[in-house]
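Hi support team,

I submitted a single chain yesterday and got back a structure, but I'm not sure I'm reading the token output correctly. Could someone confirm the output below corresponds to the sequence I sent? I've pasted both exactly as they appear in my results page.

Thanks,
R.
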Amino acid sequence: MKPLTKTAFQSMFSGTRGSAALLMAISVLGQPGLLARPKPAPQQTKKLTASAIQLERSGLTTEGDLVIPEDTRISTYENLIIQLNKTKKFEQVYRSGDRKAVTVPDLVILRLFPEAFTPGSQKLREVTTVAGATSIKVKVQFSSRDGKILLEREVQGKVRFYGENLRATSDLAKKVAAVVNKTF
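Hi R., thanks for writing in. Yes, this is the structure output for that exact sequence:
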């Protein structure tokens, strides 16, 4: 092996030095505070207040080509009533059509609009553990009595591994309750 000459060594060193300078320049430019304007801090969403909530069944109906079985719709509705009561955010949780809700001045109405439904297979899930998942995706809408939309979120309930298909409705209800806990 030949020893390196002085010129060969200097050319290798200058290439390394140029690369180091380039890396330092990129790292300085990549820092957000130096070139970019500072972005305002994300605003905290104002918490909503209400003494009662009413879950409307009308939002759980199927629309268009989306077919959701009746047992899934009923299970979603009943699980939501249970989970809304568990949050303890409201003095009263009313069902759709309850006449007592008319007298509540600060009533919030909760509607669910189905966006996607994937019927799964409990047998397939238990055999393969990677296929057969049941999934329900809905748009959750909180509105005032006069129809003003207070908040909208997309929520998805799933059952992936073990359990009945209707367990997806329980997962969905728990996630909607989490949105309620964050919002109220």
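A quick pointer for reading it: The chain has a mean pLDDT of 80. Let us know if anything else looks off.

Best,
Support desk
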